[in-house]
């Protein structure tokens, strides 16, 4: 990717209503949204003091970005994105309106990146992203919530029945390998920041946290041999179906985290607690799209997918995540 930031000169900084927009021209419109999302170059307009910050965030993208080029007059198949446009001058906003009038594809930068990348660029988030209730149907539509709850209950009951043989064998192997309880119970933060006890098959030694709460790591020495297998195949998550039936969790949603870690993560990650607007899930978009990780940077990436899921939730997306989870279980692609 290449980034080109156009420095605003005095004329551009002080655009007024007499700014000449009469030379704008358009030759051809986009034929599809797919074409919009595959452009090699997009144009971004933002307050000048934010231009370099945006450049740092988007430096690893696969397409070119031109920032604050107000000399553009030909809007043939151009994608125009704006960021914090409320802080632009009246004439600069008029430039964007004219771009829309002449047929350019114009939308907020974060929304465009949502569709193009398949996750939300949380480092660019600001409050206006959340102020479009129509986009958050999972939060505002009762019908969506009732349907999701119905699917959760039916799916949880069926999965408990289907996985019963695996659960029985797992309980036996855990008991044979190491002393301690078969089920592991731990407080996690759920919807509306309410804590609950999550159930899992124990995959670590009974004294795993004798020195206090710790991030789990990929090759964690505290994990037992049985634990390594059931974590890799996600069998350790089966007891969380009980949490689903109890109404504390959903089949699909952001994975529940511990409050002790959340307090640290919300200092580093913008709007981290927004993930608690929905019930946590047994599986989720972050789990099927991002490899296992246990660091703040990994938490940032998972948050990108969690926010994207909440805003763009559909029944189709839930089904897609569920099928990808089944693939993960069958082929042992878990952590």
Radius of gyration: 24 Å
Shape type: elongated
State mean pLDDT (0 to 100 scale). Answer: 87
Instruction: List the secondary-structure elements in sequence, H or E.
Output: EHHEHEEHEHHHHEEHHEHEHHH
Largest sheet: 5 strands, parallel
Give the spatial strand order of the biggest sheet: 1-3-2-4-5
Count of helical stretches: 14
Q: Can you tell me the residue ranges where pLDDT is under 50 for at least 5 consecutive residues?
A: none
Total beta strand runs: 9
* Helix/strand class: alpha/beta
Separation of termini?
31 Å
Task: Bin the strand percentage.
Answer: 5-15%
User: How many structural domains in the coordinates?
Assistant: 2
Helix content: 40-55%
Question: What this model shows, in words?
Answer:
Belongs to the bacterial sugar transferase family. It is a multi-pass membrane protein. Keywords: Membrane, Transferase, Transmembrane, Transmembrane helix. It comes from Pseudoalteromonas shioyasakiensis. This is Exopolysaccharide biosynthesis polyprenyl glycosylphosphotransferase. With 335 residues, the protein is α/β, with parallel strands linked by helices. It has two domains: 3-117, no CATH class; 137-330, no CATH class. The protein has helices at 10-13, 33-36, 51-57, 90-101, 109-117, 137-140, 142-162, 164-177, 225-232, 240-246, 259-268, 285-289, 296-312, 315-330; strands spanning 3-5, 41-45, 64-67, 79-82, 105-108, 183-189, 195-201, 250-252, 281-283. The strands form three sheets. The chain has a five-stranded parallel sheet with strand order 1-3-2-4-5, sandwiched between helices. A two-stranded antiparallel sheet has the order 6-7. A two-stranded parallel sheet has the order 8-9. Strand 6 and strand 7 form a beta hairpin. Helix 7 packs antiparallel against helix 10 and helix 8 packs antiparallel against helix 9. The radius of gyration is 24 Å and the shape is elongated. The model has no long low-confidence stretch (mean pLDDT 87).
């Amino acid at each position: 990717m290449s980034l080109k930031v156009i420095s605003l000169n005095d004329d551009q900084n002080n655009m007024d209503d007499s700014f000449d927009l009469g030379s704008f021209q358009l030759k051809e419109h986009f034929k599809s949204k797919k074409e919009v999302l595959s452009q090699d170059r997009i144009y971004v307009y933002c307050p000048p003091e934010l231009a370099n910050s945006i450049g740092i965030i988007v430096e690893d993208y696969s397409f070119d970005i031109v920032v604050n080029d107000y000399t553009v007059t030909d809007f043939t198949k151009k994608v125009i994105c704006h960021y914090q446009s409320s802080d632009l001058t009246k004439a600069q906003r008029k430039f964007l309106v004219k771009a829309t009038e002449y047929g350019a594809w114009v939308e907020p930068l974060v929304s465009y990146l949502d569709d193009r990348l398949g996750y939300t660029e949380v480092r660019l988030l600001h409050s206006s992203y959340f102020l479009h209730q129509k986009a958050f149907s999972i939060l505002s539509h009762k019908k969506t919530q009732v349907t999701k709850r119905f699917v959760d209950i039916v799916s949880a009951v069926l999965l408990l029945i289907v996985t019963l043989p695996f659960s029985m064998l797992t309980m036996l192997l855990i008991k044979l390998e190491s002393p301690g309880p078969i089920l592991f119970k731990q407080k996690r933060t759920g919807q509306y920041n309410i804590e609950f006890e999550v159930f899992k098959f124990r995959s670590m030694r009974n004294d795993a946290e004798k020195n206090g709460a710790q991030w789990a790591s990929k090759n964690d020495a505290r994990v037992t041999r049985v634990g390594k297998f059931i974590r890799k195949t996600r069998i350790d998550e089966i007891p969380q179906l009980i949490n689903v039936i109890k109404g504390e969790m959903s089949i699909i949603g952001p994975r529940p985290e511990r409050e002790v870690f959340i307090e640290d993560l919300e200092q580093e990650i913008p709007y981290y607690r927004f993930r608690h607007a929905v019930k946590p899930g047994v599986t989720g978009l972050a789990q099927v799209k991002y490899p296992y990780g246990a660091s703040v940077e990994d938490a940032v990436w998972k948050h990108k997918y969690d926010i994207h899921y909440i805003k763009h939730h559909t029944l189709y997306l839930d089904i897609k995540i569920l099928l990808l989870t089944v693939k993960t279980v069958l082929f042992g692609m878990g952590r």
